[in-house]
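Expect sequence, tokenised fold; for instance:
***
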Amino acid sequence: MDTLLINILNGLCYGMLLFIISMGLTIIFGVMGVLNFAHGSFYMLGAYLCLWLAPHIHNFWLALLIAPFLVGALGALSEMALLRPLYGRDISFQLLLTFGILLILDDAVKLIWGPGYHSIEAPKALSGTVQILGSTYPVYSLFIALLGPVIATALWFFFHKTAWGKMIRAAAMDREMASAIGINVPLLFTAVFFFGTLLAGMAGVLAAPLRAIGPAMGDNIIIAAFIVVVVGGLGSFLGAFIGAIILGLVEALGIQFVPQIQMALPYLLLALILLVRPRGLFGSE
């Protein structure tokens, strides 16, 4: 039972990281219709910027504010300079472009930080362990598991209760009508891409004390993020949250109960959802 509890908590922690990065992917696709293959590289870049900032500012929380903003700024520049000329063209152009950005960012971090792996410590306030029903669990991992629902609530409030959130939803439903009523759609698209990549950078910073920081970390998580988005339903806020929890628990519990096929479980889950409900759990027709 102790092992089961630890694996459930690990699954929730991993699921919340997946939710944050998947939410950025969902926002960008839902509003702009762009499947951003480079999203995982923006996540990786957030972790590397945290690695670079931590020794200089000696404050993890300040790095959590600065690094995602820098990642979001790079994402906004990419959208304005590279993606914007491709709107209205076949989606394959966007896929090739974002895949090219992925390759550029992966090689850039290798040139700057080298091909090896790095690690950073959790902030002192969240270091150590805590007792949960007789089991010992890292405080920082528990913090991530609890932070996810807080971020989900904040995002729901933003999209449903603020003027910017309502404009984003309007543009997602009908960009031509949004433009007709005075919404600056190109500026809104840039803001959405900034916000989506900012979430990816935030997930990278939060993951830095938990996972090895290396050039392949973005490639590994983007596959899981796409599975979350498809399982939950493309463009669905609730779907990204539920899908992330499901995938996190499937991976964590798979290690305990079926370790022989644990690596295949996410793909089996994806195949099952596509067969039973092709639009995802909460996706629309």
Q: What stands out?
A: The mean pLDDT is 90. The radius of gyration is 19 Å. Residues 2-32 form the longest helix (31 residues). The chain has one domain: 2-216.
